[in-house]
Amino acid sequence: GRHHGIECYFLADRNIRFMCNQHSLGLGINNKSHAIMAGGIRRHPLDEPEKDVIIDGLNLGRAMSFKNVAAGLAFGGCKTTVHMDPLDLNDMHTMGFLAFALDRSRSMTGPDMNFPTEMADVMGKNFSVQFTGGPNAPLGETGKPTAYGTFVALKEAVKFHYQDSSKSLSTMSVAVQGLGAVGWYMAEHLIEAGASLIVTDINKDRSSQLKTKYPLAKILIVEPDEILSTPADILCPCAMGGIITEENINTLPFKLIFGPANNQLRATGQETEIKLAKQLEKAGILYQIEWWHNTAGVLCGAEEYFHGPNATYENLIAKIEEIVPKKTIENLTYAKEHAITPTESAYRLSEQIIYR
Ligand code: NAD
Question: Measuring CA to CA, how many Å separate 241 from each of 178, 181, 250, 261, 262?
Answer without folding.
Answer: 11, 15, 18, 6, 6
